[in-house]
């Protein structure tokens, strides 16, 4: 084997005069460390995003909110809400699955870092915005 090139768990080898490379697989014995995988990230599922975007859309229509951002990290998924795109978020909707057996995995956090509402049911937690929307429409 004159030319060899490692590609992941395999090696491609070429002999002089061969048209196609030979593939040699590298077997990982049981008990040894498997190849590293990317760490799993917390994410909002389709139903959760739908509930959040429904509330977000109402405030956009009222002219209160203009932008949002989504972060998916190892321990938390965050939906950040902005009044303008060049500032810090005025609200954050967070999902922390590790807190699901304690205070609840969903929370709404204000600009100052205070938790405005926390619970197990996302739709119930998002109701914290209902009173704010009524004030916006009346004012």
TrEMBL record:
Pfam hit, one: DUF2794
Record-linked InterPro entries: DUF2794
Protein name as catalogued: DUF2794 domain-containing protein
Organism: Albimonas pacifica
